[in-house]
């Protein structure tokens, strides 16, 4: 038998989720089996998968030491000297600025230099997170593309992360605003209401029909400034589909500048020759919390803003000439 003590950072989740994470190398069939055989106890009482764990709970699992060593895996330690640009932080959440070109988390080509690893290194230096542990890891509540800059929110404990995930799913609780530079000539303001569907084979998102699996997607926009060939727009996402802004503006023939997937390639070429700018011109500049209930209620009506990056500001200054 193996005995574990629930710490504060791990409380508030189901025992099933806790063991899936703690026994990270165990096959799913093993996790299912120990619950089916009632081989999991909390405070000497046999429990099912939906039991919520609390700080200082004593968890007993019927497995031997060799199985435990086989099924546990310490998290990779990736300490970075680069610190994140922190916009706001308290004991529960951290809001950071992500520059364009930086991944929020690793992919097959880059696993080390990511915003997540910067945040974990920062919290490790503060003594709020320890590498090589199977406890809760501070995590992203949402994500933005590599070539999109702007605000990203992390949950520093399980309760905060769960609350943030609920907030980002319920778009009445948070308003997300972006600046986008698009092909010009569009109306001063408008709403794009077109369902979107992923084309997994081509790694693209396209406008589709709800009857064929597409999901409703709504984007509001207002023109902030007009230039000869371009327009700077304030974009308000009412839903949060993959590549929503990029696909929606491309669908009305006003694609984002620099967008290599959905953009106007001729216009992109001229733009890149003039400004040496890679990636779509898209910046998540504002997060506005509305009425929040529960654990993070203190965030109600708080607004967080980060300006455009220096390179983007210089481009706009040049376009004004």
Q: What this model shows, in words?
A:
The chain is of the alpha+beta class and 321 residues long. The protein contains eight helices and 16 strands. The protein has helices spanning 15-22, 28-36, 65-71, 115-126, 158-169, 244-251, 265-275, 310-319; strands spanning 2-5, 40-42, 45-46, 58-61, 85-89, 93-98, 139-140, 149-155, 174-183, 189-193, 196-199, 204-207, 218-226, 230-237, 282-289, 303-305. The strands form three sheets. Strands 5, 6, 7, 8, 9, 10, 13, 14, 15 and 16 form a ten-stranded mixed sheet that branches. A four-stranded antiparallel sheet has the order 1-4-2-3, with no helix packed on it. A two-stranded antiparallel sheet has the order 11-12. A hairpin with a 3-residue loop joins strand 13 and strand 14 (230-237). The radius of gyration is 23 Å and the shape is elongated.
Oligomer: single chain
Q: How many β strands by DSSP?
A: 16
Q: Secondary-structure element order, as H and E?
A: EHHEEEHEEHEEHEEEEEEHHEEH
Mean pLDDT over the full residue set: 91
Portion of residues in beta strands equals 25-35%
Total helix count?
8
Which regions contain 5 or more consecutive residues with pLDDT less than 50? none
Helical/strand content category = alpha+beta
Helix content: 10-25%
Sum up the overall morphology in one term: elongated
Q: What would you report as the Rg, rounded to the nearest angstrom?
A: 23 Å
End-to-end span in angstroms?
73 Å
Q: What is the makeup of the main sheet? A: 10 strands, mixed
